[in-house]
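A favour, since you know our structure tokens better than I do. Go ahead and set the record down below.
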Amino acid sequence: MERVEEVARTLPPVAEAGEPGRVNAALLTALADTGLLGEIFRPEGDGYAPTSATALCVIREGLARHCTEAETAFALQGLGAYPILLAGRPDTVARWIPRIAAGEVAVGFALTEPGAGSDAASLALRAEPDGDGFRLTGEKAFISNAPDAAVYSVFARTSDTGSRGITAFAVPGDADGLTGTRQAMVSPHPIGRLRFDGVRVPAAAVLGEVDDGWRVAMRTLDMFRPSVGAFAVGMAQAALDAAVAHTADREAFGRPLRTFQAVSHQLAEVATRVHAARLLVRDAAAAYDAGTGRTGHLSAMAKLFATETAQQAVDVAIQVHGARALERGHLLEHLYREVRAPRIYEGASEVQREIIARQLYR
């Protein structure tokens, strides 16, 4: 963690030089040069091996504490590439993973659609057989690194059998018939829409097996979900650090803010929740790495508690800072915009509660 945080402190200038809402190529290069991208794409023999969920959590927390833009760039590379790494054919892996790991190109994870968010099994993007390949027709929304990614892990419907009728594909960003537009978000990350107008992909581009793409998506999300909690923990810790530093020196009514129980006890509560969230995240990651079987409910608990805690931590930190924290460019104003989305993506908090509840009654 100390090495990650040391590296993270060098990245804000690179992040700030990027254009909001677009892929920051220099930041991807910097993440590769520091060795952090190499931590999640580990060379093994003639190819690459998946990293551990624990390593993902350590890196994402450390980056988030000091440079959320770098954390997001790192996470989007991993999320988009892992379906290719886990289920791609050797030629597909060899074509894309070395370039992604080197920070040379951006990659996107294309699951969500305008009409299918939390209910991702209701995908409508069609992949119709076409000779020895498929043609994809439909739309995707809220897609990472769109429309600038060089390749996307795309999930499309190949049969009308719910989640069992979905197939995953590696689709180049410059494929004929594929177009995209940017989406302006509260936090200026590279997110966009994609439109597939009869985009042809060969059979070799299938990730895993036909009609088994849902398993590819879930394998990826199960691995990354605890690290979303780690991202939240990093932001929560940054907010807590800022609040403690501010209240230690800031005076009101003739004495430091830290001497007011109404202030210090709020921060004590936040500190307790942040520590608990970190333990939940590490426990879920360790369980995943141990291969103990069904660990989805542990990941759901970690993501739910950590993201909700981060929202509270940032809100409390802003409250004890006062109006200055709402000024554009303040760390907490930045975190306030960053912290909201993790309670929605990769499964909203309500979905996480449903996963936990189902486990209770299994």
Q: What stands out?
A: The chain has twelve helices and twelve strands. Residues 147 and 197 are 15 Å apart (CA to CA).
